[in-house]
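Table S2 (text version). Query chain:
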Amino acid sequence: MARPAPKSKARRPSLKDPEWWTSIAVDLLDFKPASLAKNLSKLLKTDRPDIEKTLTRLYTDTFAACLRQWETDTTAATKAPKPTAKAFDLGAFHPHFPMRHPFFSDLLNRARQHMVKTSGNEATGQQIEDHIRFEFGRFFNLTRMANSQTYAAANAYIDLIRSGYDTPEGQVIAHTNTVLNALAHDPLPIDPDLTLWDLYVTPTARYWDTGTLDKANAQEAETVEYLIASLLKTLGNSTAPIIIHGQPGHGKSSSVRMLTHAIVTQERRTRAPQRTQVLFYEFKELGRLDRNELQILAERTPFLRDVNFFHGQRTVLILDGMDERQITDGSDIALKEFVRHLFTLADHRNRRDDTRLNLVFTGHSQFVRHVQSAFSTAYHLYEIQNFTSGQIESWLQKYCVLKQVSPALTAKDFEAKHLNDLISQPILLTITAMMLVDAQGQALLNNLSAESEGAISRGVIYRTIITWTYLKKWQHHPSREALPDESAYTHFLRMIAFVLFREGQESVKTSTLIEALKANNELYDLEVIRNKDDETIKDLCCHVAVSFFFKGLEDNVFAFIHKSIKDYLTVEAWFVLLQDITGTFDARRLDRSCEAMAGDLYFLFGHQAIVLEDHLEFLEDLIAVRKDEARRLFAPLTALFKAVQNHQYLLKHGGAQGPNPVLTEVNLLTSLLHLLTMILHGYSDEEQQVIFPDGYPKFFDESDDFHRFISLLQTTGIDRFYNERFDFRHFDFSDANLAGADLGDVNLAGANLQGANLRLANLQWADLEGADLEGADLEGANLQDAYLEGANLRLANLLQAYLAGANLQGAELDEDVQLPEGIGDTMSIDRTNSGKTQLITPDDLKQRLEWMAQIQSFGRRLADRQVRLGDLILEGREELEERA
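Corresponding structure-token output:
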């Protein structure tokens, strides 16, 4: 197997790339107005030797200050490397990015080599490099300001250059340069030896233009071989917003960063008469979204004061990671309103002849579909696809040259480890490549492939990555005794992930994290922080962060390098906490057991619910691997789910989870039902027969319970029930009162619906394959395009039921049943493009939002009243459904 060759690090190889700008070195935008250029020339003419000398000393002294912070038993490691005799290159110096200078790289490489040589440990060299990169920027400014006389010449030069960026135009350029600098010079958190520009390979995508109304139809899409080239073309030809979506780890964020470089490089190459203003934001950094959109953006870019900023300019405004938003009210209403207002802002600005404002959004595929009602004008849609075999080989070629891997890795090396289904995602390709060229990582993958009969799942590979990180980094860390084994190390990571989940955030300040861990440690059971002061816990958090895949430490913030890593650890945290919470459950003392569990389960899921697109795959993997442990959760969670349906504990426990008790109840109910259905479908038919003697699982005991559940969900968000995508296969809904219920596109395959009241219910696109609908009342029901193959419809009332496009092949029907003209029992449909077809008009949407605001206000008033929430909703069901 391939191993890194013991050679010095090489720069990016000159490889053939499908898009020329991805091979052109990233260069920062220069901004030197005539007055600044004149003053610089005058200063350098008289003081150049002093400036070079004092900048050299400033770098060396800053480096020494960073090393003094480094706590180690090796005293030699605290000695800063001596500077070379080579003159300081002023042309390569940028006051905003001091670590970009080659002199810093030289000091860093020699310090790392010295540490590895004296300690005999490669991991220690990596740790000191991480520490210096983390501290250097802060110490650079502290050192030069604390000793202003010593560095007088350097300070004069730095202050003069910075003055050029004080104008709005200069501030925009400085903002864009931050993105470009990170692209070209910031080490990848996942592999500090590389940068994004080093490894980027342009993905392919599907593309729907503004004229395509049905953007869920793959047949309407155009295949785009080179994403960046297509984006540049679209930006040049249209002012309509651009939406880029894809699965986790597909390179959405990387692509919009490379797009920034492509825009700047293309304009520099063509000598465009007007420079495009490129503004880049991450949703997770925007804070609360329930405010004016320009006020929100101005907090990150103060030069954007009002709409006049855009007038007479060409601007590309990139907002990355819609699914990584900060949740402030437990829903996505604020985010949708923020996006809708930006669409309106761009539309109005683009009506001016002298102005061009392009919006570019990215997000997880399922989440983008969830919020698409906020896209209030025509838009372009790109869906990033998996890496092709050619793109994988191109990426591996770059990686192996840069990392000096010989012999080079190929796709066959991954296939031999059953990893071929994972490496089409760039993030997993990167991590598994790192493991394959490492002895410990390779051994772990060998064990996995030996134990696996087929392809390895994402959940299993993430579990292995955590083990590898523990062995590779934490075991060699000076603070490793604080978390002495893998179990303690992993548990600490899980609880950090859970805090982020519960806060509804992708990043958290260190102080907030420490406060949350201490406040709830009775549940978290982190022995390592018990009776410890904040400073001790902070040190431990920082040490763990350096050893794992975290970023943001330079800003005193914790964030996983990729959302999928946080999501996997969150799922593991739920599983461990659920085992602890349900450990004392006693079916003989049902009420007492449920009361004992309720408080902790409201804490677990009342504030934030399981998100299907983020957590489902990992939950299924974990339940499959730990099947016996998962099954022990089934009885206690079922008992609590039924109790929560009747809102027995809402007044006691729900108020602590947020201002809206309705939302709290819905979050807990939906999370419990997802867990129960996933555990249930892991049982064989024979095992289900033992648990449910009647042959069908029944979670809704009374005839109105399921309708009450649906109505409750709909009060917290438009199409909340539909978006949850519950799996009701083989459920028992016999005799249920579901008149008028919206069950469109719901999976009810094999369900028992005998005698159910489904009058006027919406079952469009519902999967009813093999369902038992004997004696069900379907009068006036909408069964358009429903999948009824093999269903039992004997004695069912189909009077005035709408069956256009329904698949009734093999369905059991009464001999004298009267079907609408053109509908036969052998008719079939194409189900590859299922989904709701009814469009929501702006007036409908406005009415729904007004209604939801009233419901939320109603929920807040409930906090101080003794009421049975489900009964109130059921009593007003007709009005609620009519308005929803």
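Notes on Table S2: Confidence is low (pLDDT under 50) at residues 3-18, 72-78, 825-840, 862-884. Residues 34-77+85-164 form one domain.
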